[in-house]
Amino acid sequence: DGTNFDFDPAGIRVHNRQVVTKMPGSALLLAGGASKRMGTDKRYLELDGSTMISRAYESLCTLFDEVIVSSNDVPEGIPAGVVVEERYPGTGPIGGIAAGFKAANGETVFVSACDIPSVDIALLAMLYRNLDGNDIVVPMGANGRHETLFALYRRSVVSVLDQLVADGDYRIRMAFNRVVTQRIAIPRGVDLRNINTRADYERIVDRR
User: Fold this and answer.
1) pTM
2) E strands, 71-188, where?
3) How far apart are CA 90 and CA 170, in angstroms?
C-alpha cells in the first residue's frame, strides 16, 4: 500500500534464479518410498552435485521456516530433529502426511515428494493464492491426473485421512470429495513428474 509490506523483507531470498520470500505454514518432504522401480535408493541419486533428498530439503528450507521430513530412517544429510516416522507404516504417502501434520506447527502444510527434481515457485505461489476457503489445493494435469505430492493441505483434512486409512483405502485423492478441494491446472511447461525409474533419472540428467 506504499507504506507497509504484507511479508517480511528480511525473508527475501534468491532461489533457482528467482526472487522469493518465505511461504506461510509448514512444508513436508516425503522421503519414505521403497524405490522398487528404481532398483536403488533414489533419495541418494546425484543431481547438480547434490543428492535428491538434500537438494529437495535445502530448497524447501529456503521457502519455509519449518520443514519436516517423513521417513522410516534418518536420511543422510538431513537433521535428525526434523524427521518423523510415518503414522501408518505401509500405507504410503497418506501415512507420511498424517505424521507430518502431527509434527507441524502450521495450520497449512505444503506436501512435496523428494523425487520431484525442483520446486516450481510460480506454481507454489499459485496454490497459495487459491487457498482461501479451501481445505486442499492440488495441481491437475490435462490428463486429469492429480499431483497429490505437490499440493497444499489444511489441518482439517487429517481426520478424513485417518478415516480413509481405517477403511483400508490409502488413496489420497479419495479425500477430495469429502473436503473443499480446489484443482489448479498445471501451466504449460511445468513438469511435476516423479523420478521413479532409471529412465526418468537419465531424462532429467540429460536435460541439464
Assistant:
1) 0.84
2) 83-84, 108-113, 136-140, 150-154, 181-185
3) 10
